[in-house]
């Protein structure tokens, strides 16, 4: 169904909860399999303590991180939606905060990101991301609305933002299986951004796209966006 996905994601270990999602650059998944989750000397825990967050805050973060596990490959079925800890270069216009760190002289931003599985294979799966673009949705400058569609929780109504143009694809419904999870009204699926996620990363499955929406909207949207890509060799 989905030929030629992007190269496998690679990345670094971090563990801190942030939900914002600028979606500006191609990011990197955060490795789950190194024993020490706080690398690079100046750890996130230390930086948080320096900023006055207490021990109870640290315990809350550790409890949250325990929800993320390395799942068997069979768990990554098309239509499933999961969260993963994510890292990407800190681009122009992104503010350096506690959500950033330095690596080899370059600043990186980290946050959680949600993905919809569109195809599965041995050891990895192909996904498309759910993005808010800094809560601007497709009103954000540079975002291509025709490559996006709304994703909303089952039982809620899809809503475009004021001034947001028509999107390329119909809304899809996400049945959340975790009561602590919610979708912001600005959540959009970028069907043109295929990402390969290795199965040996820690993930947290949060729900599933309704089967009818996956078959009738997600699959054709991914295929159409792939077909429209410029694949001519130069």
From TrEMBL:
<dbReference type="InterPro" id="IPR046497">
    <property type="entry name" value="DUF6590"/>
</dbReference>
<feature type="region of interest" description="Disordered">
    <location>
        <begin position="1"/>
        <end position="40"/>
    </location>
</feature>
<dbReference type="Pfam" id="PF20233">
    <property type="entry name" value="DUF6590"/>
</dbReference>
<feature type="domain" description="DUF6590">
    <location>
        <begin position="74"/>
        <end position="213"/>
    </location>
</feature>
<protein>
    <recommendedName>
        <fullName>DUF6590 domain-containing protein</fullName>
    </recommendedName>
</protein>
